[in-house]
Amino acid sequence: MRDEQDEKAAGVEAYQAALRAEHAAIYGYGVVGGRIGEDRRNEARAAYDAHRARRDELQRTVRDLGGTPAQAEAAYALPFPVPDSPAAARLAAQLEDRVAGVYADVVRATEGARRRAAADALREAAVRAVRWRGGSVAFPGLAERHEPASAAATPQT
To answer: Out of 48, 50, 69, 132, which could bridge 59 as a Cys pair, Cβ 3.0 to 4.6 Å?
Structure first.
């Protein structure tokens, strides 16, 4: 059994990873919103707002656990060019897959109410990914772990 300090450190690390993923998702949805067709613009805006709310919640949680919240990067590299609406929808699905993956880690690292909240965030990201992709994966949050690292938005250096 883990001692309390190790559990807290693992939780902070998992929350920081989720926070970094939310920062990247917010950036990515800025691109999605600029390229997505009018028929899906409200969906993109709702996802952007949901990720901003999760980001704010994660920042509070990291502070509550005694950490300093990770800051957003100035820019993030996209996994592929996004010249049009179909590419924007593919990007949105990948962003949601990545977010689901990091929330799976938060579920693994936490207990109780925090675990339930992380499971809710994982579910919400998985549902958004299905909507963007038009299909689902067998184990949301786990299947994404088998994708190459370049598939996720990453900070530009």
So the answer is: 69
